[in-house]
């Protein structure tokens, strides 16, 4: 992997740990950082040694949004030609589970990045929000869509129109985050969870994530059909034979991702 300027990435026991690394500007997300994220995460996504990814931020923020200095002078044509969101969309197409550890501010594009994770663990002091309205703009990387799908139109508008910060307790209440964890244990507990996922049979994990993602957008009967096909597909895997044989032989399964 090439030298990373705005991220740190390491692999621990089958889990890729990716840390946003611009703490001096609260991990404000600039375009090269998005390119690095996409490059690193898509490469881990294809790596058979990796079973799950953890995304977090260094310092006192997960990410305080897109880099305002970078985009302040942009024209609509600049943005159209940059087409930065086609790159961003690749983060939403990752096949392996991504668990976000939100360690402080997750605002604007930072909140969108958190919402792009499959599960979110956080601490009591974390704050979430879409302050874009206070800058005369609005979310552009899925914020209005993702938040509305999670909390419904009325509640989502409350946050999007005021730009107010949501506490971690509120985020838990609305189902935005999975767990609140003591700050000193956040990374440890998130990694522990990710390592558990990384030990699961990878093809089953992959097809479960895919089916759950479909549930968000598909009508129930379409989603059920999709689920069934994935269920059938798993019966062509060696891991299905191993998992069921191991159960019947009363031993631990040895999954190989095949
Ligand atoms: N962009 C650039 N620099 C930032 C950003 C940001 N989003 N957020 C913080 N910083 C910088 C500050 O300018 C400051 O730098 P310096 O020390 O050089 O002055 C440093 O980080 C520390 O910040 P503060 O001194 O402000 O720290 P405070 O603890 O006082 O305040 C806040 C923390 C409340 C988080 C405050 O920094 C803040 O309001 N930041 C901006 C939050 C915001 O408006 N975010 C939305 C940005 S717009 C957006 O995200 C659009 C998304 C579109 C999709 C993009 C996909 C990538």
UniProtKB/TrEMBL annotation:
Keywords: Lyase. The keyword Lyase applies. Belongs to the enoyl-CoA hydratase/isomerase family. This is Enoyl-CoA hydratase-related protein. Gene3D superfamilies: 2-enoyl-CoA Hydratase, Chain A, domain 1, Lyase 2-enoyl-coa Hydratase, Chain A, domain 2. Coiled coil: none annotated. The keyword Metal-binding does not apply. Transmembrane segments: none annotated. It comes from the Bacteria. PANTHER family: ENOYL-COA HYDRATASE, MITOCHONDRIAL (PTHR11941:SF54), ENOYL-COA HYDRATASE-RELATED (PTHR11941). InterPro entries: ClpP/crotonase-like_dom_sf, Enoyl-CoA_hyd/isom_CS, Enoyl-CoA_hydra/iso, Enoyl-CoA_hydra_C.
């Amino acid at each position: 992997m090439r030298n990373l300027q705005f991220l740190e990435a390491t692999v621990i026991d089958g889990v890729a740990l990716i840390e946003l690394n611009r703490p001096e500007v609260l991990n404000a997300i600039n375009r090269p950082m998005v390119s690095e994220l996409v490059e690193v995460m898509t490469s881990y996504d294809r790596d058979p040694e990796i079973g799950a990814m953890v995304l977090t931020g260094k310092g006192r923020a997960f990410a305080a949004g897109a880099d305002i200095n970078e985009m302040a002078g942009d024209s609509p044509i600049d943005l159209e030609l940059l087409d930065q969101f086609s790159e961003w969309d690749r983060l939403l197409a990752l096949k392996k589970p991504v668990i976000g550890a939100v360690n402080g501010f997750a605002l604007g594009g930072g909140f969108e990045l958190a919402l792009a994770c499959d599960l979110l663990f956080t601490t009591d002091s974390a704050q979430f929000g879409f302050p874009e309205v206070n800058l005369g703009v609005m979310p552009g990387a899925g914020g209005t869509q993702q938040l509305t799908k999670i909390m419904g139109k009325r509640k989502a508008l409350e946050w999007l129109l005021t730009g107010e910060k949501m506490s971690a307790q509120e985020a838990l209440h609305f189902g935005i985050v999975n767990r609140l964890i003591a700050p000193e244990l956040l990374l440890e507990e998130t990694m522990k969870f990710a390592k558990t996922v990384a030990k699961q049979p990878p093809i089953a994990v992959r097809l479960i994530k895919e089916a759950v993602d479909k549930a968000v957008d598909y009508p129930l009967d379409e989603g059920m059909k999709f689920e069934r096909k994935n269920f059938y597909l798993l019966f062509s895997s060696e891991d299905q034979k191993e998992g069921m044989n191991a159960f019947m032989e009363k031993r631990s399964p040895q999954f190989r991702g095949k």
